[in-house]
Amino acid sequence: MSVDFIAGDKLRVISVASAANAVQVSVRGRFDNKQPLNLLGQHTPTNDRLTAATDVSTPLTQGGTITSAAATVAAGTKRGQVYVGLYVVDATNRIRGGLFRGYVYDSHELSLGEFIEPGPGGGEGNIRTVTGTDPGSSGEEISEAVPTNAIWRLLSFSAVLVTGSDAATRNAQLVIDDGAAANRREYHVGQDQTASLTRTHLWHRGGTNPNTLETRSFVDTDTVLSNPSLRDNIFLPEAYRIRTLTVAIDVTGPSFDNWSAPIFQVEEWLVI
C-alpha cells in the first residue's frame, strides 16, 4: 500500500486516550523529484478521553508518495487506552486520506494500511477497576456515567449500603439507562436489607439467578448480601449510566440510608 500527497498537504495525528503516553510517528516515502521523505514526529495524547491532534509535518512543498508509516507508544500502555490515526490533510485542514488508524499499545505498533475500528468490534479493550463517586449521606442513590468518547462493557458492580433505623425493608436494584431516568435500558434485581445494617451488594457475571433472590454471604469486611448475575455482554456507550434504585430507601431520617462510593470493573474502549 502507498498513499499519495500533493503540495500543501500536511500529516496529522489525531488521538483519543485515557493515558497521556507519548506516541512516536515515523513516515517514509519519496517526493515527485525523487528526493526521500523521512519524517519523525511525536504526539502526546491527553489522558481525559478528549480528542487531541498534532501536525507532524509542515506543509509539504511538493507532491509525492508515502510508502511506509508507523506509530509506537511508551511502554506500559494497555490495549484500549490510546486510539490514534495518521491522516493526510489539505491546506484547508480537511482530511484527504488515512495512513493508519487503531489502538497502539506496549509492544504493538500501527503500520501503514492498518485500520482497526474503535470499540468492541476491533478486539479486546482495557480492563479498569473504577472507584466511583460517593453519593452522599442523605439517602442519595449511586449514579455513574460512561465518559465521553468511551464504550464500557460492565463486568461487575458493588457498593456498601448502610441502612438507618427506619423499619422498612429496602431492596437494592441496579438500573442501566441512556442518561435519562425515564429511558431505562436494563434492570437487575438485588436483595432485601432491613434496618440498621451494613451490607455489600454485588452484581457480577456468574452470580446467582437474579430472579431467585438467593443470598450468598461470606466474610469480606462487610457481609456480601446480593449476588445476582449480569449477562456477559452489557455494552454501554458514552453518557449511559449505571445507577442504583433502592426500594423503600430512607431519605427523611432520623438516620438516613447511605450508599458508599461504588467499586466496579469494566472493559473500556476509547473511540473517536
Key structural traits:
single chain, about 270 residues, 2 domains, elongated
Give a quick rundown of the structure.
With 272 residues, this protein is mainly beta. The protein is 0% helix and 48% strand.
The helix/strand class is mainly beta
**Domains, number:** 2
CATH topology type of the largest domain: Jelly Rolls
Question: What is the CATH domain class of the largest domain?
Answer: Mainly Beta
Strand content: over 45%
Description:
This protein has no helices and 22 strands. The chain has 2 domains: 3-116, Hypothetical Protein Tm1070, Chain: A (Sandwich); 126-270, Sandwich (Jelly Rolls). Strands 10, 12, 16, 17, 18, 19, 21 and 22 form an 8-stranded mixed sheet that branches. Strands 1, 3, 4, 6 and 9 form a 5-stranded antiparallel sheet that branches. Strands 11, 13, 14, 15 and 20 form a 5-stranded antiparallel sheet that branches. The relative contact order is 0.19. It has strands at 3-5, 10-17, 23-31, 36-43, 52-55, 64-73, 82-89, 95-103, 110-111, 126-131, 143-145, 150-162, 170-177, 184-188, 192-193, 198-205, 224-226, 229-230, 235-236, 241-247, 258-259, 263-270. It is elongated and about 85 Å long. It is 0% helix and 48% strand. The protein is mainly β. Mean pLDDT is 90; it is low at 210-215.
